[in-house]
Amino acid sequence: MKISVITVCLNSEKTIEQTIQSVINQKCSDYEYIIIDGKSMDGTCEVIDKYKDYISIVVSEPDLGIYDAMNKGISLATGDIIGIINSDDWYEPGILSQIEKCFLDTDADVVYGKMNLIDENGTSKVLVPSDIEKIRYEMEIPHPTTFVKKSIYERYGVFQLEYKIASDYELMLRLYTKGVSFKYLEQTIANFRLGGTSVRQGEICAKETLAISLKYLPFAALSKREYFKNIIIHRQRAFVFEKILNDFPSILYDVLKAGLGVNHDDDIIIFGAGKWGIKVCLALAHTEIKIISFVDNDVKKWGQTENGIEIMRPEILKDFQGTVLAVVEKYSAEISSQISKWNNPNLYCVYWEEISMKVLERDSDLLRIV
């Protein structure tokens, strides 16, 4: 069984040597190595040339982006199995033999496994995939660990260039909905360098992931479609709320006052002293709405301050008269239950999901703003 390994690169002279060495030092009897370079302007090609005797094909020409380069590599591959390792990443020693054995021993069409995440300080953390069915709403498969049969690409297609960052997710979800057989190999396959992803790229990735999830929602079993839809909608609202805080903070004040009945004379407490809570506080800092306190369920935060405002225990809400802004992404239901137990008729609570929904009612184009 022949394995084709593809590396795509652009101006990667600082990292590609480790990538190349991790491939050519594999103990695998039958493999080919293909490098697709996007016409690098640094010393990348010189590094590649050092190892030309170990590389089957090198292409160096302009492309339409990373997924176009990957598609070029796939079209040139002659192996039964194709793996793609980018020029920032590298394989674990001896892993190609383990991949080959997994394909030979099982009926898998796609094999994937664990991945080391390496931060800028060299600290490593293992990313362990969980339930494959999560791919219905998020990228559950670490792409640098993924190997796919060439015949699967030929049958179901390659990367779609309309997606700039999440086309690997679209491909994996497409294959999953086609009934392709996935096999989890419980080993660390690849190492992935963290860093370099901008806030802008993260936003585009989130948008594309949402669009892809919704595109393939009809392919889920009818009995589970409602469940997946609710998760996707929750993620959509979280995306909108994050975008408000980052790019349109003035909208927050308008929605709270005109759309959700928050009075500028009310005392305001923010429930949640995390990233969102701090951003909400900053967004309202120069408005008529004044924040008197944070509350948080994290005991370690009690008594600390954020932006000069104290973080207190939630029990103060038992007798509080005013408005609570609940802005903890995954725990709105728990916070609602917690507040309801106190049965305080003088407390008015607004949740971040309500804010997102009001914003989308006002501006349905927000999800299309990039």
Overall pLDDT confidence:
93
The low-pLDDT segments are none
Helix content: 25-40%
What proportion strand? 15-25%
Any idea what the shape is?
elongated
Order of helix and strand elements from N to C terminus: EHEHEHEEHEEEHHEHHHEHEEEEHEH
Written overview of the protein:
- The protein is built from 12 helices and 15 strands.
- The longest helix is centred in the middle third of the chain and has 26 residues, at 222-247.
- The radius of gyration is 25 Å and the shape is elongated.
- 37% of the residues are buried.
- It has 370 residues and is α/β, with parallel strands linked by helices.
- It is 38% helix and 21% strand.
Quick recap of the structure?
This protein has 370 residues and is of the alpha/beta class. The chain is built from twelve helices and 15 strands.
Which helices and strands, and how do they pair?
Elements: E1 3-9, H1 16-24, E2 31-37, H2 44-50, E3 57-60, H3 66-76, E4 81-84, E5 90-91, H4 95-105, E6 110-118, E7 124-127, E8 147-149, H5 150-156, H6 167-177, E9 182-193, H7 199-216, H8 222-247, H9 249-259, E10 268-271, H10 275-283, E11 291-295, E12 305-306, E13 309-312, E14 322-326, H11 332-342, E15 347-351, H12 352-362
Keywords:
15 strands; alpha/beta; 6-stranded mixed β-sheet; 370 residues; 21% strand
